[in-house]
Amino acid sequence: MSEFKNATIIKKANVYFDGDVVSRTVKFEDGSIKTLGFMMPGEYDFNTEAPELMEILAGKLDVLLPGEGTWQSITGGESFNVKGNSNFQLKIHEATDYCCSFLPA
C-alpha cells in the first residue's frame, strides 16, 4: 500500500543515533501503529518490544536478526520480520526509506 487513509500522524519526530535515523509515528483507527522513517548509512543496534514488520521502501542494507548467525541483504521492495522482545542489527549501505509495522504479540 502506497498511502494510508484515516490515520493520525504524531508531529514530533522519533530521533535516534544523533539524527541518522528519524521516523514519525502513524496511528490507525483500529489501534495499530506504524512508523515511517529514514536511515542514513551506518551501523545500528535496535531493541524492540513488539514484533515488527520492516518494509524497505528504498535503499540497501544488511540485517542480523535475533538468533541468526548470518547477515541478510535487503533492498528496496523487500521486507523482514523481527521477533518481539529482541535485538537486531542493521548495516545501512545507502540512505534507506522504511515503514515499520508493530504487530500483535
Strand content: over 45%
Order of helices and strands: EEEEEEEEE
Helix content: under 10%
Query: Radius of gyration over alpha carbons?
Result: 13 Å
Report, as a whole number of angstroms, the end-to-end distance.
23 Å
List the domain count as a whole number: 1
The CATH superfamily bears the name Jelly Rolls
Instruction: Say how many strands there are.
Output: 9
Mean pLDDT: 96
Residue runs with pLDDT of under 50 for 5 or more positions: none
CATH class group: Mainly Beta
Biggest sheet overview: 9 strands, antiparallel
Number of helices: 0
CATH topology value: Jelly Rolls
What is the SS-derived class? Answer: mainly beta
Oligomer: single chain
CATH architecture: Sandwich
Task: Categorize the overall geometry.
Answer: globular
